């Protein structure tokens, strides 16, 4: 059949159009695959090609390809948050008993110890999901947003329960006593955040806190902070394990506080680019299910968990056990409570906002990311029905007969003004609001005894004032236990009456200062 000139022209236009589109399509993705030097087969399981190692760090954030399919690479540290994933995967890569593999996933847990190195791999597309502490993410998200990259946390991995803390010389017995201390730490890290958070929750005035911050000794690497303390060049060190234990064992000082007491302050979370989360919305619920199964197996098969983790991370079994003892792997119930799946307010939002404000004051962040932009909850919501009856379980033990004496040194003191009607021990609505606000601090220090001390001015007889102040302290305790469901054995109610004035009882202002309630937190050790 002979083609007419018009038909020939039409065919030529179509061919040119196809060739042109093909060139445009592949050129925008790095060139035709068969022309690339060293090109290999397409990524398995529908996974997108991974950017080459050595691609620009955060300057190139957002240019990495978004992987889709059943392969997920998770960048982690060795602090313990990734342990459930290692157990669920039966190794860093899928082992014979990999639960991820059983669910059709090809998951790699990639240990990259340095946070900067881990971020570089994330930016290059070598890592899809990152594990970092929430406080660090609060500083990171504005930096990525400025480059047009939106990050979202989609799962909680663990609470720190002792692997971050402060060691101080023996004369420093409380957070307030650090007012005159030189403290070594690493800038913009979880331990820096721990210190800032404890200072903010203490009785120290803003000017005192500024003085502490001016005296901080910043080092570039965590082990160096321990070296500074052991050489006597600082009075205290805010540091994480194993350097925390080494500093405490050096004979130079003692453990002042750790996340064993400040239990609900430092959390590791999993996050990713929002494009990755949306592209893998159907896959991520199975990822979460497998991870949570790893949490369960750590509890039911502890020896196997130690063996698998130790082999994957090439570390001694005793080191693995020590890390496990100082974290709480997050169950679904922990995730639900942390992210607030059932409520608008949530610990994750409060802690994220707090950290963002700290980093803004420290100059790391110019414009903080709103807490409303933190969460991507679709994966957790998809598995919620499987855990409808699950509740948060804690193992804090408070024994009434072993409670600290009324004279025990407090770790931290917070004075607040709770106003009672003259001669009354009843909390009015305004007083309840004040106590409710302080309850947030108690939710952070869940493994601490709380000494509630009532105080009065000197008007009236001393015996009556002592009795009244004790009743007022008890009223506060009873309200906290009933309203906030706190363990009653945590509390010690003390009535000081007029015996501990902080103001002049001859003036109205002084008497008002003396009618205060003090909360003193005492470590449960």
Features:
single chain, alpha/beta, 6-stranded mixed beta sheet, 5-stranded mixed beta sheet, 19 helices, 15 strands, 40% helix
Helix/strand layout:
Layout: H1 5-27, E1 71-76, H2 83-89, H3 99-102, E2 106-111, H4 115-123, E3 129-133, H5 134-145, E4 151-160, E5 164-168, E6 183-186, H6 190-200, H7 206-214, E7 217-219, H8 222-230, E8 236-240, H9 243-249, E9 254-258, E10 267-273, H10 274-279, H11 284-300, H12 302-313, H13 317-324, E11 327-329, H14 332-339, H15 347-361, H16 378-383, E12 412-416, H17 429-444, E13 448-455, H18 462-484, E14 491-497, H19 508-514, E15 517-523
Helix pairs in contact: 2-11, 2-12, 5-15, 8-9, 11-12, 12-13, 17-18
How would you explain this protein's 3D organization?
With 525 residues, the chain is an alpha/beta fold. The chain contains 19 helices and 15 strands. The chain has helices at 5-27, 83-89, 99-102, 115-123, 134-145, 190-200, 206-214, 222-230, 243-249, 274-279, 284-300, 302-313, 317-324, 332-339, 347-361, 378-383, 429-444, 462-484, 508-514, and strands at 71-76, 106-111, 129-133, 151-160, 164-168, 183-186, 217-219, 236-240, 254-258, 267-273, 327-329, 412-416, 448-455, 491-497, 517-523. Strands 2-1-3-10-4-11 form a 6-stranded mixed β-sheet, with helices on both faces. Helix 11 (284-300) crosses helix 12.
């Amino acid at each position: 059949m002979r083609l007419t000139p018009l038909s020939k022209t039409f065919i030529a236009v179509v061919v040119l159009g196809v060739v042109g589109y093909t060139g445009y399509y592949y050129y925008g993705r790095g060139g035709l695959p068969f022309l690339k030097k060293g090109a290999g087969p397409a990524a398995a399981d529908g996974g997108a090609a991974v950017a080459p190692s050595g691609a620009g760090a955060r300057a190139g954030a957002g240019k990495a390809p978004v992987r889709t399919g059943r392969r997920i690479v998770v960048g982690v540290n060795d602090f313990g948050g990734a342990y459930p994933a290692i157990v669920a995967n039966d190794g860093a890569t899928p082992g014979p008993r990999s639960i991820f593999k059983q669910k059709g996933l090809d998951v790699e847990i990639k240990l990259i110890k340095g946070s900067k190195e881990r971020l570089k791999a994330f930016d290059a597309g070598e890592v899809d999901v990152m594990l970092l502490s929430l406080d660090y993410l609060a500083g990171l998200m504005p930096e990525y947003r400025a480059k047009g990259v939106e990050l979202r946390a989609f799962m909680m991995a663990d609470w720190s329960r002792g692997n971050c803390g402060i060691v101080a010389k023996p004369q420093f017995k409380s957070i307030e006593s650090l007012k005159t201390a030189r403290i070594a730490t690493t800038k913009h890290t979880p331990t820096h955040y721990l210190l800032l958070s404890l200072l903010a929750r203490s009785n120290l005035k803003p000017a005192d806190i500024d003085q502490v911050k001016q005296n901080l000794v910043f080092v570039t690497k965590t082990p160096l902070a321990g070296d500074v303390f052991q050489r006597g060049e600082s009075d205290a060190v805010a540091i994480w394990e194993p350097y925390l234990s080494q500093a405490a064992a050096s004979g130079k000082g003692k453990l002042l506080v750790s996340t064993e007491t400040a239990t609900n302050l430092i959390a590791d979370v999993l996050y990713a680019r929002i494009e990755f989360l949306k592209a893998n919305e159907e896959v991520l619920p199975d990822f979460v299910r497998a991870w949570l199964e790893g949490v369960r197996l750590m509890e039911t098969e502890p020896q196997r968990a130690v063996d698998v983790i130790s082999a994957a991370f090439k570390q001694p079994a005793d080191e693995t056990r020590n890390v496990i003892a100082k974290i709480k792997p997050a169950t679904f119930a922990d995730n639900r409570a942390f992210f607030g799946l059932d409520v608008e307010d949530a610990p994750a939002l409060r802690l994220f906002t707090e950290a963002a404000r700290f980093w803004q004051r420290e100059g790391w962040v110019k414009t903080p990311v709103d807490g409303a932009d933190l969460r991507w909850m679709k994966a957790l919501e998809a598995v919620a029905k499987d855990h409808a009856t699950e509740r948060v379980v804690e193992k804090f033990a408070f024994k009434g007969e072993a409670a600290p004496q009324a004279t025990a040194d407090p770790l931290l003191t917070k004075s607040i003004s709770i106003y009672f009607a003259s001669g009354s021990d009843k909390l009015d609505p305004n007083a309840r609001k004040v106590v409710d606000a302080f309850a947030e601090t108690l939710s952070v220090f869940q493994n601490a005894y709380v000494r509630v001390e009532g105080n009065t001015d000197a008007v009236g007889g001393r015996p009556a004032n002592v009795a009244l102040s004790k009743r007022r302290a008890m009223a506060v305790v009873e309200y906290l236990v009933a309203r906030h469901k706190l363990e009653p054995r945590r509390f010690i109610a003390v009535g000081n009456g007029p015996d501990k004035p902080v103001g002049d009882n001859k003036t109205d202002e002084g008497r008002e200062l003396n009618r205060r309630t003090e909360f003193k937190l005492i470590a449960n050790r």
